[in-house]
Amino acid sequence: MNNLLVSIIVPCYNQGNYLNDSLQSVLNQTHASWECIIVDDGSTDGTKDIASKWVEKDSRFKYVYKANEGLCAARNSGIKIATGDYILPLDADDKI
Predict the structure, then answer these.
(1) Dist. CA 72–CA 52, nearest whole Å
(2) Rounded to two decimals, what is the model's pTM?
């Protein structure tokens, strides 16, 4: 199981104030084989700047921007580009 890739999908709409804690929890967990796709669903609160810092910090983080269509559409956009064996949905205001 340790070498199976987990795709963590983080839809975010104007939840930038929670995003650092959520992404730090991804980085802190013990499974090493993961990608984290942050899907910015048209945020206007600086989510892009916060996500960009994480993408620079670790190449397993990926950032996608899309026009606002709601939580389900944002999550599905992330799933479409995920390459993992498993999908882990993680809301931007939650922690692992």
Answers:
(1) 23
(2) 0.95
pLDDT, tens digit only, all 96 positions of the chain: 568 999 999 999 999 999 999 999 999 999 999 999 999 999 999 999 999 999 999 999 999 999 999 999 999 999 999 999 999 999 999 999
- Cα distances from 17 to residues 3, 93, 96, in angstroms, run 32, 8, 17
Structure tokens, 52: 């960009």
